[in-house]
Each structure stands twice: as structure tokens, then as C-alpha cells.
Amino acid sequence: MSQTQDLAVLLSDSDLFRSQGYINGQWVSASDGATFPLTNPATGAKLADMPHMPRTQVAEAIDAAKAALPSWSALTAYQRSAYLLKLHALMEQHVNDLGTILCVENGKPLAEAKGEIAYGASFMQWNAAEGLRTYGQTIPSPYPGTRNIVIKQPIGVCGLITPWNFPNAMITRKMAPALAAGCTVVIKAPAETPLSALAMAVLCERIGIPAGVVNVVVMDKGEKEAAAGLELCENPKVSKISFTGSTSVGRLLMKQSSSTLKKLSFELGGNAAFIIFDDADLETAVKGVIASKFRAAGQTCVCANRIFVHSKIYNEFASLLAEKVKELKVGNGMDEGVLIGPLVNVRGVEKVERHVQDAVSKGAKILVGGSRIKSENAEGESCFFQPTVLVDVPKECYVASEETFGPLAPLFKFDDEDDVVNRANSSEVGLAGYFFTKDLARSNRVAERLEVGMVGVNTGVIAQACIPFGGVKQSGFGREGGPGGINEFQIEKLITIGGI
């Protein structure tokens, strides 16, 4: 018999734990009664039976969002800003409970989960201010007696498709600018981590956001999830799709949205190069790799995936990194001192395992880790994998071309700047890149040459609410956050007045 876990007893405010969808201001089960089990990846324990909603309920959520759009968009920017500031305050007030929910359903350590809540809340604060500054303009006309005025208006109903690796922040990064712009939203929560999305719906309800403005639909992976995506893409009442996930799914959504010509913004797969030049401060570089590679157990789209180290410092750097990685405590995210939690599911473990075995079979050596960890508490297979460092990694192996999405740090050797930049740019995707150097000229030269949307120089952490987040090539298009993030949810309208 499967083990169960009562998540509510861990919360100060148990009402934040919801296991129903949220449509038009109502908490609803699947209309056909179907459910699927949600489990804790650290223990295998069942957390809840979640609604496995059909496509018809996604359409209902879209209808609700469309009906709520006129009144929400008619509010002043100051009124919508006030709602976002209230959400920000509630997120800060409930950071422990929101972090606990996130930790238990996703697996990341509690301290890291709380950090994500703070990061998610920052998008509320940022967009509360940005919503007040979506300026239009007056453009001089070549025709006498004519005036051109450009205003910005909300694009309409937005479908937000979010991933499991940042269950709170990926929602707030999309929802906050959409609401600030005057749009209404339908959030398709990830099957692996729906509780964080539903907890945000609870907060929206508490501050009085009107029914239909925010809707959350939930379903398991498979046919119903595919049908939900199809409904969001094909329904003409949806004007915009914002998606974070894999490049392959992004291609599919783009194809499915073509019949209704929706505005799209995609943050897709990454394969970040992390370059350490021979003049780098090695202690700082090691800290940068730890921060970039092992956050969320390596399950981030901007984490270091290909680590290039100059041959002059290769052995020294590898030794320093290995020592730091040995100190990373692995375990249940709710346990004190844990820095690396489980991967979100067994499929993730199997991919890391495949990458390690492939590299080793081609000549790589394991310095630290290299295998999955047995868990006495887990039901069935364990989702834990040892933080791993590989050296002497060949150019031709899976980890050189595929995003691992796990706690695996492969070290590739290089000698020449042009060569390593070309190798870094050889990927079909271009989300983030990193490099460490003390050479000012090189820092500008390499940053401009890397074919990515974001570059970290002498740092492994780049994500902030105030910066434009997004990629180039097949990492997608559009930007989230920063001064232009809210523009993704608006249209420019020209008003030309004659006879003046």
C-alpha cells in the first residue's frame, strides 16, 4: 500500500494547500471525476489526488477569462498595481508555507524553495511599478492638421504554460506582467508541481482579484495535457501564449498556434557553456560553477551544462571543484543542511545516468559521484543522484550536445579563445552563457561573441526581476522581466486624428 503524506500539517495556514482547480473564482474538480496521484519525489509518498481535467474545462477557463477581461482591463494601472503589491505582501507573509509546499512537491531544499518564493514575489513588486510606466507617445505627422497618438493596451486573454522546475517563479514571472498590463490569464499548471500554482490562486482570491481574472487548470501528462495545450493554442479567445519548457514542445505549440496567429513568447531549452580562462580567479570560478550547476539539483534551463576549462588550470580547477562538490549534502529537502534534493522524477535520474555512462564509455573519468543514491524512504525507485564531476570529457558525447538537467558537471579542456567560443556557439540553442576572466578586453569581446540571450561574467547567477530573461536561436524569443517584459502582454494602437 502506498505511503501518504499529510502536507497540511506542515503548514501554518493549511488553506494554502488545495487539490482542486480554480476556474471563474470557483474551486472545482475534474468534470469527469478523473484524478491522478501527486507524489513527493523525495519519499514517494502521495500528497494528494489531483484533478485530471479534460479539454472542455480548459475552454471553460478561457471563457471565464474572456468574460472578466473588459472590467479588469478597464481598471486604472494604479488599481492593478495595488493588487500586485498586495500579492507581493502576502507572498512575503507566507514565505514559509509557500516554500514548504514547493519543497515537498518539487524536491528542492527548503532554503532554496524559500529563496524561489522571494524571487517570485519580486516579479509582483517589479511589475506593480512597471504597469504604471507603459508609456505611449505622440508622433509628429507629415500632414497639416493631423496628430498621431500611440497608446498601449492589454493584448487580451493569455495562456500561461509553466514548468515544474520553478513552480512559483515561472508563474509569477508571467502572471505579474500580464495582470499589470490588464490581461486575464489561464494557467496550465505542471502535473509534477500543481500545488504551488494553486496556492497562488488562493492568494489571488484573498486579495479580491475578481473571478475569471486568474484561472488554474490541472491535468496529468498524456492525452489530456496535450489536449489542454491544443485548446489554448487553437481557441480564438486566447490572444497570447507564454511558454517555458523544452524546445521540442515549443515547436509544437508554435505550429498549433498558427491557425489563430497568436502572439507567442517562448523560453525554451538551454545548453549553457561555462568557460574558465587561465587568468580567472579559481576560487570565484568554483563558487560560480556550484551556484550555476547545482542549484535545483541542476534542473534549471540556465545552469552550466558544458564546463570548458583552460588546460593550464584544468587539473587545479577540477580538484578544487571536486572538493566543494563532496561537501554538498544530498537528501530530503525538508531535512536541515540538505543542499541537493531529489530530481523531480525517475526519468530525470535515468537521463543523468545515461549521460554519465556514455561519457565514461568514451574515456571520461569520474572524480566525484557518478551514480544514483538509494533511498530507504522512497516508494519504488529513488529520485536521488550523486552530485557528479567528470574530467577528460571527450568532445563527442551526449553531455556535449544534450541538456542534462541534473547534478552533473562535465569538464572539457580547451587552449584557445576562438576555439572555445566556437565550441560554445556550436549548440542549436542559445539561452545563457558564462565565463570567468580578469581581462577587461576579453570580458567585452567574449560576451559579445557568445550566441546567447544572457551572459554572466565572473558570476554564476544572472536571474533577477529587473533584467530581460530569454534566449536566441532555438531557445525561443520574447523576454520576461526587465523594462520590456510587460510589453509582451500589450499591443500598440495608433490613433490618427485629422482636421485639427
Summarize the structure.
Helix content is 36%, strand content 22%. The mean pLDDT is 97.
Keywords for this structure?
500 residues, alpha/beta, Aldehyde Dehydrogenase, Chain A, domain 1, Aldehyde Dehydrogenase, Chain A, domain 2, 2 domains, 7-stranded mixed beta sheet, 6-stranded mixed beta sheet, 14 helices, 24 strands, 36% helix, globular
- Tell me the number of structural domains: 2
What is the top-level CATH class of the largest domain? Alpha Beta
Helix content percent band: 25-40%
CATH superfamily of the largest domain: Aldehyde Dehydrogenase, Chain A, domain 1
Active site: 267
Catalytic activity: succinate semialdehyde + NADP(+) + H2O = succinate + NADPH + 2 H(+); succinate semialdehyde + NAD(+) + H2O = succinate + NADH + 2 H(+)
GO molecular function: succinate-semialdehyde dehydrogenase (NAD+) activity; succinate-semialdehyde dehydrogenase (NADP+) activity
Protein name: Succinate-semialdehyde dehydrogenase
